[in-house]
Amino acid sequence: MYMVFFLGIFFRRKTALSYVSKMALPIIVKWGGQEYSVTTLSEDDTVLDLKQFLKTLTGVLPERQKLLGLKVKGKPAENDVKLGALKLKPNTKIMMMGTREESLEDVLGPPPDNDDVVNDFDIEDEVVEVENREENLLKISRRVKEYKVEILNPPREGKKLLVLDVDYTLFDHRSCAETGVELMRPYLHEFLTSAYEDYDIVIWSATNMKWIEAKMKELGVSTNANYKITFMLDSAAMITVHTPRRGLIDVKPLGVIWGKFSEFYSKKNTIMFDDIGRNFLMNPQNGLKIRPFMKAHLNRDKDKELLKLTQYLKEIAKLDDFLDLNHKYWERYLSKKQGQ
Question: What range(s) does the FCP1 homology domain occupy (predicted)?
Answer without folding.
Answer: 155-316
